[in-house]
Amino acid sequence: MSKAKLVFVIHNHQPTGNFDEVFRSATDACYEPFVAALEANPHVKAALHYTGPLLEWLERNSPELLLRVRALAGRGQVEVVGGAWYEPMLCVLPDRDAIGQIRTMRAECVRLFGRAPAGMWLAERVWDPDLPRILAAAGVRYVLLDDTHFRCAGVQDEWVSGWYVTEKAGAAVAVLPIAKQLRYAIPFGAAAGTVETIALRRGEILTYGDDGEKFGVWPGTAEWVWGKGWLRDFFRILGERSDAVETIHPSEAIADRTAMRGRIYLPTASYQEMGEWSLPAAAGRRLIALRSRLERDGLWDDAAPFVRGGIWQNFLAKYPEANRMHKRMLRASRKVQAAVERDPLHPRAIGPDNARARLELYRGQCNCAYWHGLFGGLYLPHLRSAVQSHLIRAEAMVDPCPEPRVSREDWDLDGADEVIIESAALTVIVKPHISGALEAFDIRERAFDPLDTLARRPEVYHADVAEAAERARAGAALGGRPLPPREAVAEAVNGQPASIHDRVRKADARLPDLLRYDDLPKLCLLDRILPPDASFDAWDGGALRAVVEPTAFAYSVERSEAGPAPAVGMRAAVASPWGPLDVTKAISLDPADRALDVRWTIAPAGGGPAGPARFATGLTINLPGGSDPMRGYAFDEPQFAVADRDRALASRGALPGVRRFRMIDGRLQFEIAFAADPCADLWRRPVETVSQSEEGFEAVFQGSDILIAWPLDIPPGGRASFGLRIGVALR
Fold first, then answer.
1. What is the DSSP letter of 2?
2. Secondary structure of 557-591 in the HEC alphabet?
3. Is 698 one of the annotated active-site residues of the chain?
4. 419 and which of 63, 558, 568, 704 could share a cystine (Cβ 3.0–4.6 Å)?
5. Which distant-in-sequence residues (6+ apart) come within 8 Å of 372 by Cβ?
6. Is this structure's pTM higher than 0.85?
7. Of 56, 79, 97, 124, which one is the catalytic site residue?
8. Is residue 211 annotated as part of the catalytic site, yes or no?
9. Could you give the CA distance from residue 294 to residue 301 in angstroms, rounded to a whole number?
């Protein structure tokens, strides 16, 4: 009788910008032990995929591990699976970058492992029907996708096995379906039972493909996989049942024409949870409620392929911050391509400077910081900052901007033009239609944008935070032992770990108090008029209501000037309790001093009085690490001798009559100085979001909210004028 054949694929990944200790701990807990397990079990064939960020780290820090993988590939035990080098979402890249990323991975696999990959791992298995055209152009013969995709296309089989072919405009690629039953069983089910389940599918090719981090990094898996020997037992039993089960490589699977199930056209899809995560919170809640009703009625299994939620691109609409990164990436891509086309070596090759710029661009396309689901992703400032830094660096390398310039374009595709002011030192992007605010302030010499902050917004899982926090409080009362929710069991009776989707979620007891939400993205220089008795406590507690909100300051551009001091002049007619106000806002760049000068002039349109009130502008600055001792505020005026704890970026408080203060980044070696004219009140508070991760719910410091406020009391026929200088000094 023919055997069941198992395609066993492991995907290993760490994102661009992750902490060095995370790479190290994952290597020690997971990547190295897995290679050792394969070396000890030569009868097991496996396919391994390592992403570019991880391979770069391993080559610097653990080159011997790569040599061991090369040896396994050399003896035919391991097939190296390719991919896009820095694990981008191919569906949102220009074709040239998507193909370039795949070809870069192929070249690196040849260099590191001596093998050119035949197929690829697709980031988060995010599929788009146009991808066969890209994959075929890049020389990809096969790709692995969840069986969810096939069920969405109408495949009804209990097990989706074998392989299929799909195409776009005649460009074809083979597709191997990853069996959901195996994804849920490996490594969470009993080893013997899992092998027997496979053995029952004699004559079929079954594909398993999932994250290598399941084998030691995910919560509870280190003890289960290594301490209790799950992988050792699984590999041993595969050897003992070699009469019924054979492991094969993906390229061997697609060479078996008898296992070819036919042609298929797959819709835009990913795994089920991705469709839920990408929806806006309100729609996500409705989808979850619908799923609960269908599960209760026993209909979910039949309905699931047709109740899919959103698509990955929805994240670019759900999170303006993700869209900003994506459009920054497209802007950098256009500039890099323009430089490549100017290269005298093009099209045969490109020069080393442009090659380095293209690599920086590719690093900035790593997908993890562009979205948020179970893992932190977009909510993690260090991941966003790394992406932004690579993109800023790529752009600066191919466009050093020796002469300051001003341009207007709808760069973020929100339907309205922005004004872009550039110099060799700074790039500033102004949104006239949203309060004349800044959405980028690139310090090019440090490849850093201090405006890279994340607004606080509702998430579906926020409804669970209060219960998790209550369990934490109750557990503390019982000596620190956490209380599980009534409906969840974290550990099975035999000690195997729960799925990462089903684990008890941990939460700090203070998290419910942080569930406050912002009406606008966290831009810089959001203008408003406050009541005269506005207090810091009301603002800090989220109870302060403006007399005139930032959205009322919808400026139109009156002038934009290039030259040695590029500038933009804007005007808005603003409705107020005193009648219409004529407000002008001028922003000019001083390239020599790396400084931005902002000047507001406010006059009642009818010549009458206005006020008393307070005119204020709000900034959110993100120097990562709210309690980092090497980052913080500096108050230079002697009357503001604040304690060290009040210099931390996570500090809060109010200071009256401030003329100058600084924010210092001792790690990136720069500071930002703010000078108010006339002196103004300064309010500050930390911005913390509540997000979920594989461990539970957590507070994440996203930056420092700053409000600068001046008294506003205009007599009849008068006007008011306020100024703010924002300067960068390198240290």
1. P
2. EEEEECCCCCEEEEEEEECCCCCCEEEEEEEEEEH
3. no
4. 568
5. 277, 315, 319, 378, 379, 459, 691
6. yes
7. 124
8. yes
9. 9
